[in-house]
Design a protein that fits this description.
single chain, 271 residues, five-stranded mixed beta sheet, 4 helices, elongated, Copper_CuA, electron transport, CcO_II
Length: 271
Amino acid sequence: MSSHSVPRATLGPPLHGGDVRAPAEVFESIFEVFLVLGTLVGVVVVVYTLYHAVTYRATDGADPYADSVERPELGELPTGGAGGRKVFLSLGISAVIVLSLIGWTYMELSYIEDGPSIEGEEDLRITVEGYQFGWTFVYPNGYESTTLRVPRNRVVRLDVTSRDVFHNFGIPAFRVKADAIPGQTTAAWFTHDETGTYEAQCYELCGSAHSMMTAEVEVVSQDAYREWYRGTDEETANATAAGNQTAPGTATPTENVTDTPTANATGGEPA
């Protein structure tokens, strides 16, 4: 076992137990709410329109309500309708519904922006570096990989950046997406409760091989991730130790310094 410390967040058990709402779940809930309400409003409008089209249709070119309905003349404002109460009631209800949707959607998107905060759990933070035309993932212990491997039921925070041009890192299955800009870092996060292999893509046109700029995303069990991360931890520590060793045959600075005193300029005894 390497002496290099392993962050508790990468090896500990999943503390949230899958009860954290993933970005995919939040976006799907927003879509479903707007789909249901949009469908309901559409049905009401269509039914209301068809009802009046049939009820007040003209028969044989004659207006059946010519005598019973008071119609405004050209240039005259319409009257009736209970003094406009129906109009104000419909506008008021519509305003309440729309403002409620705006407020609810804002809170949902704020959750996506900030991410969950779980008492006692440290998030797994991974740096994502884009380049033409691939991705590199840097783990907390310094290990680099072209495959993003994460444990299930763990909040994973991504620090996304680029080495060269503008890119955009996205995992469609997780509904996560972030700009990769040279010299800047964009934050994103996700969590997933099912093991499997997924695909990350670049969503910013970045060159001739843009369409091939993909990477594998593996979601594994906590035990499998623990075992894998320990191996990378030891590998990183060994690579660091090897890099700190002096190459064979290379003299150190002290080996080139003589211990013999140098004679003074007059040829006398050494100084």
